[in-house]
């Protein structure tokens, strides 16, 4: 008989793992509490507008391609990606604009408009960014750290020294650059893993290489088409995906995960994989006496990542200021992270990221209209800020900020939909609404995250942004592949 795996959650990590396990011959069932697969990424259609609620900046396409190719098919038969160049438009408070591109001479020319010194140093920074990526790819991203030997081997310690874990991202950037615009543009990479550039280790400077050199991609039909393609491939391999089914507890027998109990029945399994926040899932599914290494006190010591305040706008206008991806920066960047991580309140002058997929693909909005995904970084859920009280006023603050940048009329949009951190926590069970799992604001939370294999319960594994190798869509997808490989090796050989 085939070995059975139950996967809780049909996000990128869970689907990636399901495809890997099924392609290796395991019997796989995926249980998803939401109406549709996708986790934090959900497709929203309203009055002719199509939105992706969730990740919209796709990088590292080889990771997604690997999911399909490992299972014996070509990704292009399921989903198609297209390269974006320019990658992202960066708009600064002083009116300067830098359109991120692979062409380093173009980049230097744009930066030179406001800082000739920064332009001269861009090439050297990009070389260091590439070196950091290669180190991360070789030592951290493509392997699981399951044992003390994995984490503390001589080669791992040497690699850690090479990436200088105690140097903050902002500190590294200041070795090359001095103008606030450049520091903001490259410091923003910290937010991709839910952290602050003034706290997170400098290894995330590698994202400069990831975006500019390796590329940012759009997805035909919207980012959620990646999920649709993965679901199709999983089901072809025999994976059963049940939606609107809520798992209420883990079944533990003799110290091992023997299955799960849902609101629709009991599922026995040889192995359980959780594609959900490690902290939330431990608290919600496992009585505390069974998880001494991840008890409630241990959970409370982790700092959640950034959350987000999302506004979806379907508006009968088009804006020449916008590309597929556009970022509007505030005048003083550091204030945003002080508000969020120290005061634990919404930033009063937030960076605003807009995804306008209709820029690249007709049919995502009616003719002459725009489908805008607007994201402001936000604090994780705490007693210090009530979104029930502040949602309407914060939306207006964002609309006013964008109107001042020339994007007027958003408050007259035909479609306006909000998702605040409290709703994100409720919908996805993300611990305290953190979009990226735990933050990467410390060395420990960056390099020594909660393990993919439960320390106290056998045959229980985790994939997703809180565990190794970390947050971000391609990295979460990679975690599913790595865990799938380990589990298949153990149960199939």
Report on this model:
The longest helix is centred in the first third of the chain and has 26 residues, at 116-141. Strand 1, helix 1 and strand 2 form a beta-alpha-beta unit. The chain has 17 helices and 19 strands. The protein has 493 residues and is an alpha/beta fold. 37% of the residues lie in helices and 19% in strands. The protein has helices at 12-23, 61-70, 104-112, 116-141, 148-152, 154-162, 169-176, 180-187, 207-214, 224-236, 278-285, 296-300, 334-343, 387-404, 421-428, 443-447, 473-491; strands at 4-8, 27-31, 42-46, 49-53, 81-84, 89-91, 97-99, 216-219, 240-242, 247-253, 256-262, 265-268, 271-275, 307-315, 325-328, 352-355, 370-378, 415-419, 460-463. The model has no long low-confidence stretch (mean pLDDT 95). Helix 1 (12-23) runs parallel beside helix 10 and helix 3 crosses helix 4 (116-141). The strands form five sheets. The protein has a seven-stranded mixed β-sheet. The protein has a five-stranded parallel β-sheet with strand order 9-2-1-13-19. The chain starts with a strand and ends with a helix.
């Amino acid at each position: 008989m085939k070995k059975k795996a139950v996967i809780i959650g049909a996000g990128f990590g869970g689907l990636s793992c399901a495809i890997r396990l099924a392609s290796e011959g395991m019997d796989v069932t995926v249980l998803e509490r939401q109406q549709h697969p996708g986790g934090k990424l959900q497709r929203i259609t309203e009055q002719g507008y199509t939105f992706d609620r969730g990740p919209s900046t796709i990088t590292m396409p080889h990771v997604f391609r690997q999911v399909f190719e490992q299972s014996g098919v070509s990704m292009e038969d399921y989903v198609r990606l297209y390269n974006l160049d320019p990658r992202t438009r960066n708009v600064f408070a002083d009116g300067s604009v830098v359109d991120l591109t692979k062409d380093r001479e173009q980049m230097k020319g744009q930066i030179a408009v406001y800082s000739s010194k920064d332009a001269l140093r861009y090439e050297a920074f990009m070389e260091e960014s590439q070196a950091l990526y290669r180190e991360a790819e070789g030592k951290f991203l493509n392997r699981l750290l399951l044992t003390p030997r994995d984490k503390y081997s001589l080669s791992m310690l040497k690699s850690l020294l090479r990436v200088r874990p105690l140097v903050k991202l902002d500190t590294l950037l200041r070795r090359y650059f001095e103008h606030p615009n450049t520091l903001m543009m490259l410091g923003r990479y910290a937010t991709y893993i839910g952290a602050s550039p003034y706290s997170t280790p400098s290894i995330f400077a590698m994202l400069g290489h990831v975006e500019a050199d390796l590329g940012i991609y759009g997805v035909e039909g919207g980012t959620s088409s990646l999920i649709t393609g993965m679901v199709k491939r999983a089901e072809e391999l025999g994976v059963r995906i049940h939606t609107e089914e809520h798992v209420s507890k883990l079944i533990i027998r003799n110290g091992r995960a023997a299955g799960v109990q849902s609101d629709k029945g009991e599922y026995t399994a040889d192995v359980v994989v959780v594609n959900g926040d490690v902290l939330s899932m431990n608290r919600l599914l496992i009585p505390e006496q069974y998880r001494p290494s991840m008890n409630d006190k241990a959970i409370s010591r982790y700092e959640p990542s950034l959350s987000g305040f999302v506004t979806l706008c379907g508006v009968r206008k088009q804006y020449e200021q916008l590309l597929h991806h556009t970022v509007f920066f505030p005048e003083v960047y550091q204030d945003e992270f002080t508000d969020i991580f120290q005061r634990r309140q919404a930033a009063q002058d937030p960076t605003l990221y807009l995804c306008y997929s209709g820029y690249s693909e007709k049919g995502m909005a009616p003719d002459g209209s725009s489908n805008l995904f607007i994201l402001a970084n936000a604090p994780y859920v705490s007693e210090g800020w009530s979104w029930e009280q502040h949602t309407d006023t914060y939306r207006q603050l964002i609309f006013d900020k964008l109107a001042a940048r020339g994007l007027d009329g958003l408050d007259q949009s035909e479609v306006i939909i909000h998702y605040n951190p409290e709703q994100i926590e409720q919908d996805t069970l993300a611990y305290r609404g953190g979009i990226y799992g735990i933050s990467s604001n410390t060395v420990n939370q960056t390099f020594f995250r909660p393990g993919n294999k439960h320390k106290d319960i056998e045959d229980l594994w985790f994939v997703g942004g809180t565990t190794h190798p970390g947050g971000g869509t391609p990295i979460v997808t990679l975690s599913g592949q790595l865990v799938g490989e380990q589990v298949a090796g153990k149960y199939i050989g």
